[in-house]
Input
Amino acid sequence: MVAYFHNLGMPVPPATMQSLWDSLRGSGTITAGFGNEPGGRGQQVLRRYQAGDTIFAYANGFGVVGYGIAEGPQSYRLVANARRGSNHRHEARVSWQATAGDIHDALPPFAVRQITHHLPRQTSEKVSLRPERLREETERRWPNQPITRAHVLAAFQQVAKEGYRAERRSTRWDVLHPNSGDRYPPKVILSRAAQLAGVRNNRGGGWPTNDVLAALGFMIVPKEGEELEVEQDLAQMDLAGLRDRAEREARQEPPRTSSRGQSIARSPWISAYAKRTANGRCDLCGNDAPFRTAAGPFLECHHILRLADGGPDCIENVVALCPNCHRRMHLAPRKSDISALRQPVTLATNHRFGSKE
Ligand SMILES: [Zn+2]
Output
């Protein structure tokens, strides 16, 4: 085992060391700065950590605040925007094992020095003396584990039974229950899971909620509340009628309801049309929808060219995807996927309606 001290760096005001640590700990990452460019020193520092290496998180002025296991150089990425409270754009993944919820519970510098005869000065330094002993000390100090998938599953169960306050619902996102596909508010689920894990719950909203849930393998999807309103009419409509309605919607300027300038409303008719023509299969991978709901096979609508980037809300730009492909298109889109999506959509609509036009 190779063990390192990794210095968290300084928070960028108005963030505090606590909020910076909450964010890293909640998302299972460590970060580095240094130029913030590809190939920069921050990248070298983070790519040096091999899968299985032990990483001791060191907070300047506080001491060791936790330890985790590095996921290896392939988990490194240069992100477009530094996470809140930091100016670091180099990131790598760490699976935290024992961590301080409150940084004031850090293993203080004098205690660290007693064990390792060493305090780090650089961003990253090897712990050459007694790293196992340091690990035992952190485990003894913070026996609570970070939030796991099991905690989130238990949170779903609890929320389903007890409900939640409506005002805590996200306006933009839902998290899906992996078996039923039921939609839940991400913040409510994560804060419940944090309680169950015995992890300090951050009230200031410093947790990147959706990232944490996605990292644990849960599906985050955009809200589609509006579609419920058209459900009744939809059932009676034949395909030609539905297409007609969807095309009329597209001619209008897409309605924009700006919340933080990002959320743009879509026509429920256009999504309904995409789903109807997809006929229960994902437009990208071609697999059957993962499950059925009362409204039919579960697929999600995706704008090939994002509305936020000026893409049109019209039937040619909207496809129906399975949750996996949908998530991938948002997190790791490939050029080939985008062209694959454009192709069948055009062909399919021409083919199905060619005789009418
Ligand atoms: Zn798919």
About this structure: The longest helix spans residues 335-353. The radius of gyration is 24 Å. Confidence is low (pLDDT under 50) at residues 202-206, 255-264, 344-357. Residues 282, 284-285, 287, 321-322, 324-325 surround zinc ion (CB under 6 Å).
